[in-house]
Each structure stands twice: as C-alpha cells, then as structure tokens.
Amino acid sequence: MFGALRERFTARESPAAIEERILALLRKPETQWTDACRSKATKNREQSLAVLSTIDAALTPAQRNHLQRELTKLSQQLEAMTRS
Fold first, then answer.
1. How far is CA 76 from the centre of its chain?
2. Could you tell me if 22 and 41 lie in one domain?
3. 41: closest CA among 30, 25, 27?
C-alpha cells in the first residue's frame, strides 16, 4: 500500500494505474501477503475460533440468544455499509 501511495505522489505511473493498484489492495489485501503473514493469519484464525468455542460453551441459552441477536444486528449494519 505504501508503495502504491508513494507512486501516486511521484507520478511514475498513471493515476488510473495507481488507483487500480490501491483498490486491488483494499479489495483483496491477502494477494500481497507473504507466506509468513499467511501462516500467522491462519494461526490467529485457529486461536480465535478456539476462544470463541470456549466462550460459546460457557454461555447460558439466554446469553447465547442475546449474543446471536447482537451479532445479527452487527451483520446487518456491516451489510448496509457495504451497499452504501
């Protein structure tokens, strides 16, 4: 991203080409990840899922229902943001 922005200000590439690079990085940042970054992301995802599983197992049915309602609201808000 920094390289694309730097290019934007030094005008080595056309503004349209730089804009496309920046948009591609924003849309699919994982395309620029190194193997180490991919490995770390996978490990973090596995750890996050383990923590969520532990939390879920400790919830009462009422707590789980409340959490599901809150997550649904959040999902709807994020969905609306992607449309605007």
1. 16
2. no
3. 30
